[in-house]
Protein backbone atom coordinates (compact mmCIF):
# COMPACT_ATOMS: atom_id res chain seq x y z
CA UNK A 1 0.00 0.00 0.00
CA UNK A 2 1.38 3.44 -0.89
CA UNK A 3 1.98 5.74 2.01
CA UNK A 4 -0.59 8.50 1.69
CA UNK A 5 1.05 10.58 4.40
CA UNK A 6 2.41 13.29 2.05
CA UNK A 7 -0.97 13.74 0.37
CA UNK A 8 -2.84 13.96 3.66
CA UNK A 9 -0.20 16.28 5.09
CA UNK A 10 -0.84 18.70 2.22
CA UNK A 11 -4.60 18.84 2.81
CA UNK A 12 -5.96 22.05 4.34
CA UNK A 13 -8.16 19.97 6.64
CA UNK A 14 -5.13 18.42 8.37
CA UNK A 15 -2.94 21.52 8.23
CA UNK A 16 -2.74 21.94 11.99
CA UNK A 17 -2.32 18.26 12.86
CA UNK A 18 1.00 17.00 14.24
CA UNK A 19 3.18 14.77 12.10
CA UNK A 20 2.39 11.87 14.41
CA UNK A 21 -1.36 12.36 14.11
CA UNK A 22 -1.23 12.61 10.32
CA UNK A 23 0.70 9.32 10.22
CA UNK A 24 -2.05 7.75 12.33
CA UNK A 25 -4.74 9.09 10.02
CA UNK A 26 -2.82 7.92 6.95
CA UNK A 27 -3.15 4.39 8.28
CA UNK A 28 -6.90 4.60 7.57
CA UNK A 29 -6.57 6.13 4.10
CA UNK A 30 -6.99 4.89 0.56
CA UNK A 31 -6.86 6.77 -2.70
CA UNK A 32 -9.96 6.70 -4.87
CA UNK A 33 -10.72 7.76 -8.42
CA UNK A 34 -14.30 7.99 -9.70
CA UNK A 35 -15.70 9.03 -13.05
CA UNK A 36 -18.25 11.75 -13.84
CA UNK A 37 -21.75 10.54 -13.02
CA UNK A 38 -20.57 7.89 -10.55
CA UNK A 39 -21.80 8.07 -6.97
CA UNK A 40 -19.38 8.35 -4.05
CA UNK A 41 -22.28 7.27 -1.84
CA UNK A 42 -26.04 7.21 -1.91
CA UNK A 43 -28.71 8.32 0.54
CA UNK A 44 -29.45 5.67 3.19
CA UNK A 45 -26.30 3.62 2.55
CA UNK A 46 -23.92 2.86 5.43
CA UNK A 47 -21.54 5.77 5.95
CA UNK A 48 -18.22 3.97 6.12
CA UNK A 49 -15.89 6.71 4.98
CA UNK A 50 -14.85 10.29 5.30
CA UNK A 51 -13.52 11.90 2.09
CA UNK A 52 -11.12 14.66 1.21
CA UNK A 53 -11.56 15.93 -2.33
CA UNK A 54 -8.17 16.32 -4.02
CA UNK A 55 -9.44 17.07 -7.48
CA UNK A 56 -12.86 17.48 -9.07
CA UNK A 57 -16.35 18.42 -7.99
CA UNK A 58 -19.07 16.50 -6.20
CA UNK A 59 -22.76 17.41 -5.94
CA UNK A 60 -24.65 16.56 -2.78
CA UNK A 61 -28.12 15.56 -3.88
CA UNK A 62 -31.37 15.03 -2.09
CA UNK A 63 -34.51 13.50 -3.51
CA UNK A 64 -37.52 15.65 -2.66
CA UNK A 65 -40.79 13.83 -3.24
CA UNK A 66 -42.77 15.64 -5.90
CA UNK A 67 -39.86 17.93 -6.77
CA UNK A 68 -37.24 15.52 -7.97
CA UNK A 69 -33.57 15.62 -7.18
CA UNK A 70 -32.14 18.89 -5.91
CA UNK A 71 -28.50 19.76 -5.45
CA UNK A 72 -27.99 21.15 -1.98
CA UNK A 73 -24.26 21.79 -2.10
CA UNK A 74 -21.24 21.28 -4.30
CA UNK A 75 -17.94 20.17 -2.79
CA UNK A 76 -14.68 21.02 -4.48
CA UNK A 77 -10.97 20.52 -4.33
CA UNK A 78 -9.54 20.80 -0.83
CA UNK A 79 -12.89 20.31 0.88
CA UNK A 80 -13.94 17.51 3.23
CA UNK A 81 -16.97 15.42 2.41
CA UNK A 82 -19.28 13.72 4.89
CA UNK A 83 -19.65 13.49 8.63
CA UNK A 84 -22.14 10.64 8.91
CA UNK A 85 -19.24 8.19 9.50
CA UNK A 86 -18.86 9.89 12.88
CA UNK A 87 -22.40 9.80 14.17
CA UNK A 88 -24.53 6.69 14.73
CA UNK A 89 -26.34 5.12 12.95
CA UNK A 90 -23.62 5.87 10.36
CA UNK A 91 -25.88 6.31 7.34
CA UNK A 92 -25.66 8.91 4.57
CA UNK A 93 -28.42 11.51 4.49
CA UNK A 94 -27.50 12.69 0.99
CA UNK A 95 -26.20 11.20 -2.20
CA UNK A 96 -22.85 12.42 -3.54
CA UNK A 97 -22.48 12.38 -7.33
CA UNK A 98 -19.28 13.18 -9.20
CA UNK A 99 -19.76 16.10 -11.60
CA UNK A 100 -16.26 15.59 -12.93
CA UNK A 101 -13.48 13.08 -12.59
CA UNK A 102 -12.92 12.78 -8.86
CA UNK A 103 -9.68 12.07 -7.07
CA UNK A 104 -10.13 11.79 -3.34
CA UNK A 105 -8.70 10.34 -0.17
CA UNK A 106 -11.15 7.99 1.51
CA UNK A 107 -10.60 7.54 5.24
CA UNK A 108 -12.18 4.46 6.76
CA UNK A 109 -14.72 5.62 9.37
CA UNK A 110 -14.39 2.71 11.75
CA UNK A 111 -10.61 2.86 11.60
CA UNK A 112 -10.71 6.60 12.40
CA UNK A 113 -13.14 6.08 15.28
CA UNK A 114 -10.92 3.37 16.76
CA UNK A 115 -7.86 5.57 16.50
CA UNK A 116 -9.71 8.41 18.19
CA UNK A 117 -10.75 6.11 21.05
CA UNK A 118 -7.21 4.88 21.49
CA UNK A 119 -5.62 8.31 21.17
CA UNK A 120 -7.82 11.00 22.75
CA UNK A 121 -5.49 13.82 21.65
CA UNK A 122 -5.92 12.83 18.03
CA UNK A 123 -9.61 12.33 18.75
CA UNK A 124 -9.93 15.85 20.15
CA UNK A 125 -8.18 17.44 17.16
CA UNK A 126 -10.26 15.51 14.69
CA UNK A 127 -13.51 16.32 16.50
CA UNK A 128 -12.50 19.99 16.63
CA UNK A 129 -11.89 20.05 12.87
CA UNK A 130 -15.15 18.21 12.21
CA UNK A 131 -16.98 20.69 14.47
CA UNK A 132 -15.51 23.62 12.51
CA UNK A 133 -16.66 22.07 9.28
CA UNK A 134 -20.14 21.45 10.73
CA UNK A 135 -20.28 25.02 12.03
CA UNK A 136 -19.56 26.51 8.64
CA UNK A 137 -22.11 24.20 6.97
CA UNK A 138 -24.63 25.16 9.65
CA UNK A 139 -24.02 28.87 9.04
CA UNK A 140 -24.45 28.29 5.34
CA UNK A 141 -27.69 26.40 5.95
CA UNK A 142 -29.03 29.22 8.14
CA UNK A 143 -28.24 31.76 5.43
CA UNK A 144 -30.09 29.65 2.89
CA UNK A 145 -32.97 28.91 5.21
CA UNK A 146 -33.47 32.65 5.67
CA UNK A 147 -33.78 32.87 1.90
CA UNK A 148 -32.06 36.24 2.07
CA UNK A 149 -32.19 36.86 -1.67
CA UNK A 150 -35.86 36.06 -1.89
CA UNK A 151 -36.91 38.26 0.98
CA UNK A 152 -34.90 41.40 1.74
CA UNK A 153 -31.92 42.53 -0.25
CA UNK B 1 -43.99 70.32 -20.66
CA UNK B 2 -41.07 71.86 -18.77
CA UNK B 3 -38.53 73.89 -20.70
CA UNK B 4 -34.91 72.98 -20.82
CA UNK B 5 -34.02 75.85 -18.46
CA UNK B 6 -36.61 74.69 -15.98
CA UNK B 7 -35.21 71.19 -16.20
CA UNK B 8 -31.70 72.45 -15.56
CA UNK B 9 -32.96 74.42 -12.58
CA UNK B 10 -34.79 71.39 -11.33
CA UNK B 11 -31.60 69.40 -11.62
CA UNK B 12 -29.91 71.86 -9.30
CA UNK B 13 -32.55 71.42 -6.61
CA UNK B 14 -32.00 67.97 -5.10
CA UNK B 15 -35.62 67.77 -3.98
CA UNK B 16 -37.14 68.17 -7.45
CA UNK B 17 -37.16 65.11 -9.70
CA UNK B 18 -35.78 65.40 -13.22
CA UNK B 19 -38.12 63.80 -15.77
CA UNK B 20 -36.81 60.87 -17.78
CA UNK B 21 -38.31 58.80 -20.57
CA UNK B 22 -38.19 55.02 -20.36
CA UNK B 23 -36.22 54.02 -23.45
CA UNK B 24 -36.14 50.34 -22.78
CA UNK B 25 -37.64 47.91 -20.30
CA UNK B 26 -35.57 44.75 -19.83
CA UNK B 27 -36.83 41.76 -17.94
CA UNK B 28 -33.80 40.34 -16.13
CA UNK B 29 -35.38 37.53 -14.08
CA UNK B 30 -38.80 36.57 -12.85
CA UNK B 31 -38.93 39.42 -10.31
CA UNK B 32 -36.21 41.75 -11.52
CA UNK B 33 -36.06 44.23 -14.39
CA UNK B 34 -33.86 47.01 -15.70
CA UNK B 35 -35.01 50.39 -16.94
CA UNK B 36 -32.93 52.34 -19.40
CA UNK B 37 -33.81 56.00 -19.04
CA UNK B 38 -33.00 59.09 -21.04
CA UNK B 39 -33.53 62.63 -19.78
CA UNK B 40 -36.34 64.60 -21.41
CA UNK B 41 -33.81 67.34 -21.99
CA UNK B 42 -31.29 65.98 -24.50
CA UNK B 43 -28.67 68.52 -23.33
CA UNK B 44 -28.85 67.20 -19.79
CA UNK B 45 -25.54 65.51 -18.94
CA UNK B 46 -25.55 62.62 -16.51
CA UNK B 47 -22.72 62.09 -14.09
CA UNK B 48 -22.46 59.57 -11.28
CA UNK B 49 -19.91 57.47 -9.47
CA UNK B 50 -20.22 53.67 -9.11
CA UNK B 51 -22.20 52.81 -5.99
CA UNK B 52 -24.38 55.93 -5.97
CA UNK B 53 -28.16 55.82 -6.09
CA UNK B 54 -31.10 57.87 -7.36
CA UNK B 55 -34.48 58.48 -5.82
CA UNK B 56 -36.80 57.22 -8.55
CA UNK B 57 -40.25 58.74 -8.59
CA UNK B 58 -43.15 56.89 -10.16
CA UNK B 59 -45.60 59.74 -10.67
CA UNK B 60 -48.67 59.43 -8.50
CA UNK B 61 -47.32 56.38 -6.68
CA UNK B 62 -44.17 57.19 -4.76
CA UNK B 63 -40.43 57.44 -4.61
CA UNK B 64 -37.77 54.81 -3.83
CA UNK B 65 -33.96 54.74 -3.64
CA UNK B 66 -32.46 52.58 -6.38
CA UNK B 67 -28.76 52.21 -7.14
CA UNK B 68 -27.47 53.07 -10.57
CA UNK B 69 -26.49 49.88 -12.36
CA UNK B 70 -25.22 51.26 -15.68
CA UNK B 71 -21.93 52.50 -17.00
CA UNK B 72 -20.65 55.73 -15.43
CA UNK B 73 -19.11 56.84 -18.73
CA UNK B 74 -22.51 56.88 -20.41
CA UNK B 75 -23.63 60.48 -20.00
CA UNK B 76 -26.89 60.08 -21.89
CA UNK B 77 -28.48 56.98 -20.44
CA UNK B 78 -29.32 56.01 -16.90
CA UNK B 79 -29.77 52.33 -16.01
CA UNK B 80 -31.48 51.00 -12.90
CA UNK B 81 -32.08 47.36 -12.02
CA UNK B 82 -34.91 46.78 -9.60
CA UNK B 83 -36.43 43.87 -7.81
CA UNK B 84 -40.17 44.03 -7.41
CA UNK B 85 -41.02 43.93 -3.70
CA UNK B 86 -43.84 46.38 -3.02
CA UNK B 87 -46.01 49.26 -4.11
CA UNK B 88 -43.52 51.51 -5.91
CA UNK B 89 -41.30 48.84 -7.41
CA UNK B 90 -44.42 47.06 -8.70
CA UNK B 91 -45.56 50.28 -10.36
CA UNK B 92 -42.10 50.61 -11.89
CA UNK B 93 -42.40 47.10 -13.27
CA UNK B 94 -45.48 48.24 -15.19
CA UNK B 95 -43.65 51.08 -16.96
CA UNK B 96 -43.13 50.69 -20.67
CA UNK B 97 -40.99 52.35 -23.31
CA UNK B 98 -42.20 55.96 -23.72
CA UNK B 99 -43.48 56.29 -20.17
CA UNK B 100 -42.11 58.95 -17.84
CA UNK B 101 -40.36 58.60 -14.51
CA UNK B 102 -38.68 61.16 -12.26
CA UNK B 103 -35.21 60.86 -10.74
CA UNK B 104 -33.41 62.84 -8.08
CA UNK B 105 -29.73 62.31 -7.58
CA UNK B 106 -27.19 60.90 -7.86
CA UNK B 107 -26.79 60.66 -4.11
CA UNK B 108 -24.46 59.08 -1.60
CA UNK B 109 -20.94 57.78 -1.40
CA UNK B 110 -19.35 55.51 -3.99
CA UNK B 111 -17.17 52.42 -4.28
CA UNK B 112 -13.47 53.12 -3.66
CA UNK B 113 -12.35 53.03 -7.30
CA UNK B 114 -9.34 55.27 -6.62
CA UNK B 115 -8.27 53.54 -3.40
CA UNK B 116 -8.43 50.17 -5.15
CA UNK B 117 -5.97 51.17 -7.87
CA UNK B 118 -2.83 49.05 -7.84
CA UNK B 119 -4.46 46.35 -5.73
CA UNK B 120 -6.37 43.14 -6.28
CA UNK B 121 -10.11 43.72 -6.21
CA UNK B 122 -12.74 41.29 -4.97
CA UNK B 123 -16.39 42.07 -5.59
CA UNK B 124 -18.79 39.98 -3.52
CA UNK B 125 -22.40 40.27 -4.63
CA UNK B 126 -25.53 38.64 -3.29
CA UNK B 127 -28.82 38.68 -5.22
CA UNK B 128 -29.83 42.14 -6.42
CA UNK B 129 -26.56 43.35 -4.82
CA UNK B 130 -24.89 42.70 -8.16
CA UNK B 131 -26.70 45.75 -9.60
CA UNK B 132 -24.91 48.40 -7.49
CA UNK B 133 -21.59 46.63 -8.13
CA UNK B 134 -21.94 46.47 -11.90
CA UNK B 135 -20.83 50.09 -12.44
CA UNK B 136 -17.69 49.33 -10.41
CA UNK B 137 -16.96 46.37 -12.66
CA UNK B 138 -17.52 48.45 -15.82
CA UNK B 139 -15.15 51.02 -14.37
CA UNK B 140 -12.45 48.46 -13.63
CA UNK B 141 -12.79 46.86 -17.06
CA UNK B 142 -12.36 50.26 -18.72
CA UNK B 143 -9.25 50.92 -16.66
CA UNK B 144 -8.10 47.34 -16.41
CA UNK B 145 -4.36 48.09 -16.29
CA UNK B 146 -4.78 50.10 -13.12
CA UNK B 147 -5.93 47.15 -11.01
CA UNK B 148 -4.40 43.83 -9.98
CA UNK B 149 -6.35 40.59 -10.08
CA UNK B 150 -10.09 41.14 -10.29
CA UNK B 151 -12.52 38.59 -8.92
CA UNK B 152 -16.31 38.68 -8.95
CA UNK B 153 -18.05 36.31 -6.54
CA UNK B 154 -21.79 36.24 -7.08
CA UNK B 155 -24.38 34.26 -5.18
CA UNK B 156 -28.07 34.12 -5.78
CA UNK B 157 -31.09 31.98 -5.07
CA UNK B 158 -31.31 29.69 -8.07
CA UNK B 159 -29.96 29.52 -11.64
CA UNK B 160 -33.16 31.27 -12.82
CA UNK B 161 -32.38 34.23 -10.55
CA UNK B 162 -29.00 35.01 -12.07
CA UNK B 163 -28.88 38.64 -13.15
CA UNK B 164 -27.17 39.87 -16.31
CA UNK B 165 -26.55 36.29 -17.42
CA UNK B 166 -25.31 37.20 -20.90
CA UNK B 167 -22.85 39.72 -19.54
CA UNK B 168 -21.70 37.28 -16.89
CA UNK B 169 -21.05 34.67 -19.57
CA UNK B 170 -18.96 37.20 -21.47
CA UNK B 171 -17.03 38.22 -18.35
CA UNK B 172 -16.41 34.58 -17.48
CA UNK B 173 -14.70 34.06 -20.80
CA UNK B 174 -12.33 36.99 -20.22
CA UNK B 175 -8.83 36.06 -19.13
CA UNK B 176 -8.39 39.22 -17.05
CA UNK B 177 -11.41 38.63 -14.83
CA UNK B 178 -12.32 35.72 -12.55
CA UNK B 179 -16.04 35.18 -12.19
CA UNK B 180 -17.43 32.62 -9.77
CA UNK B 181 -21.15 32.09 -9.42
CA UNK B 182 -22.99 30.02 -6.89
CA UNK B 183 -26.66 29.41 -6.20
CA UNK B 184 -28.48 28.40 -3.05
CA UNK B 185 -30.25 25.52 -4.70
CA UNK B 186 -30.49 23.93 -8.09
CA UNK B 187 -31.68 20.93 -10.00
CA UNK B 188 -29.18 18.44 -11.38
CA UNK B 189 -29.17 20.29 -14.73
CA UNK B 190 -27.15 23.11 -13.19
CA UNK B 191 -23.44 22.46 -13.76
CA UNK B 192 -22.15 25.25 -11.52
CA UNK B 193 -21.59 25.70 -7.81
CA UNK B 194 -24.25 25.21 -5.19
CA UNK B 195 -23.67 26.79 -1.80
CA UNK B 196 -23.50 30.21 -0.21
CA UNK B 197 -21.43 32.96 -1.81
CA UNK B 198 -19.32 33.34 1.33
CA UNK B 199 -17.87 29.89 0.68
CA UNK B 200 -16.33 31.17 -2.56
CA UNK B 201 -14.26 33.71 -0.65
CA UNK B 202 -12.05 31.02 0.83
CA UNK B 203 -10.80 29.71 -2.48
CA UNK B 204 -10.92 32.76 -4.74
CA UNK B 205 -7.59 33.70 -6.33
CA UNK B 206 -6.47 37.02 -4.79
CA UNK B 207 -3.75 38.19 -2.46
CA UNK B 208 -5.55 38.98 0.81
CA UNK B 209 -2.76 41.25 2.00
CA UNK B 210 -3.14 43.44 -1.09
CA UNK B 211 -6.86 43.39 -1.77
CA UNK B 212 -9.72 45.85 -1.70
CA UNK B 213 -13.08 44.13 -1.29
CA UNK B 214 -16.47 45.58 -2.22
CA UNK B 215 -19.46 43.74 -0.80
CA UNK B 216 -23.11 44.26 -1.64
CA UNK B 217 -26.15 42.19 -0.78
CA UNK B 218 -28.49 41.41 2.08
CA UNK B 219 -26.95 42.61 5.33
CA UNK B 220 -26.69 39.16 6.85
CA UNK B 221 -24.87 37.91 3.77
CA UNK B 222 -22.52 40.91 3.95
CA UNK B 223 -21.73 40.09 7.58
CA UNK B 224 -20.77 36.52 6.72
CA UNK B 225 -18.82 37.70 3.68
CA UNK B 226 -16.84 40.17 5.77
CA UNK B 227 -16.10 37.40 8.26
CA UNK B 228 -14.75 35.16 5.50
CA UNK B 229 -12.71 37.99 3.99
CA UNK B 230 -11.09 38.83 7.32
CA UNK B 231 -10.50 35.12 7.97
CA UNK B 232 -8.65 35.06 4.65
CA UNK B 233 -6.53 37.99 5.83
CA UNK B 234 -8.16 41.03 4.19
CA UNK B 235 -7.92 44.03 6.55
CA UNK B 236 -11.27 45.47 7.68
CA UNK B 237 -10.12 48.88 6.45
CA UNK B 238 -9.92 47.43 2.93
CA UNK B 239 -13.46 46.09 2.95
CA UNK B 240 -16.35 48.26 1.74
CA UNK B 241 -20.03 47.47 2.17
CA UNK B 242 -23.19 49.11 0.88
CA UNK B 243 -25.87 49.68 3.52
CA UNK B 244 -29.59 49.98 2.89
CA UNK B 245 -32.03 51.91 5.01
CA UNK B 246 -35.48 53.30 4.33
CA UNK B 247 -35.09 56.72 2.79
CA UNK B 248 -37.21 59.74 2.06
CA UNK B 249 -35.25 62.86 1.19
CA UNK B 250 -31.99 61.19 0.13
CA UNK B 251 -29.97 64.26 1.03
CA UNK B 252 -29.55 64.20 4.81
CA UNK B 253 -32.54 66.38 5.74
CA UNK B 254 -35.36 64.19 7.04
CA UNK B 255 -33.50 61.78 9.31
CA UNK B 256 -35.37 58.79 7.90
CA UNK B 257 -32.23 56.82 7.20
CA UNK B 258 -30.40 57.78 10.36
CA UNK B 259 -28.34 55.19 12.22
CA UNK B 260 -26.86 56.75 15.36
CA UNK B 261 -25.06 59.80 13.93
CA UNK B 262 -24.94 58.45 10.39
CA UNK B 263 -27.21 59.51 7.57
CA UNK B 264 -26.97 56.49 5.30
CA UNK B 265 -28.21 58.52 2.31
CA UNK B 266 -25.41 61.05 2.61
CA UNK B 267 -22.59 59.41 4.61
CA UNK B 268 -23.30 56.09 2.86
CA UNK B 269 -24.58 53.91 1.34
CA UNK B 270 -21.00 52.74 0.70
CA UNK B 271 -18.97 52.56 3.88
CA UNK B 272 -15.55 51.32 4.82
CA UNK B 273 -16.34 48.34 7.00
CA UNK B 274 -14.12 49.25 9.96
CA UNK B 275 -15.99 52.55 10.25
CA UNK B 276 -19.47 51.05 10.13
CA UNK B 277 -18.80 47.85 12.05
CA UNK B 278 -20.31 49.06 15.36
CA UNK B 279 -23.59 49.66 13.50
CA UNK B 280 -23.56 46.18 12.02
CA UNK B 281 -23.02 44.79 15.50
CA UNK B 282 -25.58 47.09 17.10
CA UNK B 283 -28.27 45.69 14.86
CA UNK B 284 -27.54 42.28 16.25
CA UNK B 285 -28.69 43.20 19.76
C1 LIG C 1 -29.28 53.16 -1.16
C2 LIG C 1 -30.26 52.13 -1.62
C3 LIG C 1 -30.07 51.55 -2.84
C4 LIG C 1 -30.98 50.58 -3.30
N1 LIG C 1 -30.77 50.01 -4.52
C5 LIG C 1 -31.65 49.13 -4.99
C6 LIG C 1 -31.48 48.56 -6.28
O1 LIG C 1 -30.53 48.85 -7.00
N2 LIG C 1 -32.41 47.69 -6.72
C7 LIG C 1 -33.49 47.33 -5.96
O2 LIG C 1 -34.30 46.53 -6.40
N3 LIG C 1 -33.66 47.83 -4.72
C8 LIG C 1 -32.79 48.73 -4.23
N4 LIG C 1 -32.99 49.28 -2.98
C9 LIG C 1 -34.16 48.84 -2.22
C10 LIG C 1 -35.41 49.60 -2.68
O3 LIG C 1 -35.26 50.93 -2.35
C11 LIG C 1 -36.65 49.00 -1.99
O4 LIG C 1 -36.86 47.69 -2.44
C12 LIG C 1 -37.86 49.83 -2.28
O5 LIG C 1 -37.76 51.03 -1.57
C13 LIG C 1 -39.15 49.12 -1.91
O6 LIG C 1 -40.22 49.98 -2.20
P1 LIG C 1 -41.69 49.46 -2.54
O7 LIG C 1 -42.59 50.62 -2.47
O8 LIG C 1 -41.69 48.70 -3.80
O9 LIG C 1 -41.96 48.46 -1.36
P2 LIG C 1 -42.80 48.75 -0.05
O10 LIG C 1 -44.24 48.77 -0.42
O11 LIG C 1 -42.21 49.91 0.65
O12 LIG C 1 -42.48 47.45 0.74
C14 LIG C 1 -43.07 46.21 0.36
C15 LIG C 1 -42.35 45.10 1.01
O13 LIG C 1 -40.99 45.13 0.64
C16 LIG C 1 -40.19 45.20 1.76
N5 LIG C 1 -39.08 46.11 1.53
C17 LIG C 1 -39.05 47.44 1.70
N6 LIG C 1 -37.82 47.90 1.47
C18 LIG C 1 -37.10 46.85 1.16
C19 LIG C 1 -35.74 46.67 0.85
N7 LIG C 1 -34.86 47.67 0.91
N8 LIG C 1 -35.35 45.43 0.52
C20 LIG C 1 -36.20 44.42 0.50
N9 LIG C 1 -37.47 44.51 0.82
C21 LIG C 1 -37.91 45.70 1.15
C22 LIG C 1 -41.06 45.75 2.86
O14 LIG C 1 -40.60 45.27 4.13
C23 LIG C 1 -42.38 45.17 2.53
O15 LIG C 1 -42.51 43.87 3.01
C24 LIG C 1 -32.09 50.21 -2.50
C25 LIG C 1 -32.27 50.82 -1.26
C26 LIG C 1 -31.37 51.77 -0.81
C27 LIG C 1 -31.56 52.39 0.51
S1 LIG D 1 -33.24 59.94 3.70
FE1 LIG D 1 -33.59 61.82 4.65
S2 LIG D 1 -31.89 62.03 5.90
FE2 LIG D 1 -31.40 60.27 4.76
In short:
The complex is a heterodimer of chains A (153) and B (285). Chain A is built from four helices and eight strands.
What does this structure look like?
The complex is a heterodimer of chains A (153) and B (285). Chain A is of the alpha+beta class. Chain A has helices spanning 5-9, 19-26, 109-118, 120-145, and strands at residues 29-34, 39-41, 49-55, 57-64, 68-76, 80-81, 95-98, 102-108. In chain A, strand 4 (57-64) and strand 5 (68-76) form a beta hairpin. In chain A, helix 3 (109-118) crosses helix 4 (120-145). The longest helix of chain A is centred in the C-terminal third of the chain and has 26 residues, at 120-145. The mean pLDDT of chain A is 92. Chain B is α/β, with parallel strands linked by helices. Chain B folds into two domains: 4-107, Elongation Factor Tu (Ef-tu), domain 3 (Beta Barrel); 120-242, Nucleotide-binding domain of ferredoxin-NADP reductase (FNR) module (Rossmann fold, 3-Layer(aba) Sandwich), CATH 3.40.50.80. In chain B, 25% of the residues lie in helices and 31% in strands. In chain B, a hairpin with a 2-residue loop joins strand 1 (18-29) and strand 2 (32-39). Chain B is globular. Classes of the chains: A alpha+beta (153), B alpha/beta (285). The A-B interface holds A 59-61, 68-74, 76-78, 97, 99, 136, 139-140, 143-144, 146-153 and B 83, 126-129, 155-157, 161, 182, 184-188, 190-196, 198-199, 203, 217-221, 224, 244. The structure holds flavin-adenine dinucleotide (FAD) and FE2/S2 (inorganic) cluster. The site of FE2/S2 (inorganic) cluster has 12 residues of chain B, from loops.
Amino acid sequence: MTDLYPIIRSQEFFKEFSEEDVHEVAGCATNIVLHPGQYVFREGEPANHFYLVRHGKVSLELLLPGRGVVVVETIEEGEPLGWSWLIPPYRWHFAARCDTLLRAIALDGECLRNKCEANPKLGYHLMLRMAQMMESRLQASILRMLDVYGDKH
Amino acid sequence: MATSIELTQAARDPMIPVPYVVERFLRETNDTFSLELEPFDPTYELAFRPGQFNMLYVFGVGEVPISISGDATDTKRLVHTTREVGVVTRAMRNLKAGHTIGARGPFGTSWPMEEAKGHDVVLVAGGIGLAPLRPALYWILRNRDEYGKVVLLYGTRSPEDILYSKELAKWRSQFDLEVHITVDRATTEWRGNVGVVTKLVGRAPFDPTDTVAMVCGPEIMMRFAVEELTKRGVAEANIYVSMERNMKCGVGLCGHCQLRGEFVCKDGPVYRYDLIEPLFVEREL
